[in-house]
Specification:
Layout: E1 9-12, E2 16-23, E3 27-31, H1 38-41, E4 46-50, E5 54-58
Antiparallel strand pairs: 1-2, 1-5, 2-3, 3-4
Length: about 60
């Protein structure tokens, strides 16, 4: 399992994407506002994702 770093773009939970803002021991905090359809999805701007539940799309 590769752990994301701050600035990486990750994908999780049926195609949601976000930029990693903070890396914790078991999870990352992700900013979801980079998605084009973010305003249509009625989601919070940030969420927590466990390291087991995402894949890295773009590394920085």
């Amino acid at each position: 399992m590769k752990i994301a770093k701050v600035g990486n773009v990750i994908e999780f939970k049926d195609g949601l994407k976000g930029i990693v803002e903070k890396v914790n021991e078991n999870s990352v905090i992700v900013d979801l506002t980079i998605m084009d359809d973010f305003s249509d999805l009625e989601l919070d701007a940030r969420t927590v994702v466990n390291h087991k539940n995402y894949r890295i799309v773009t590394e920085r």
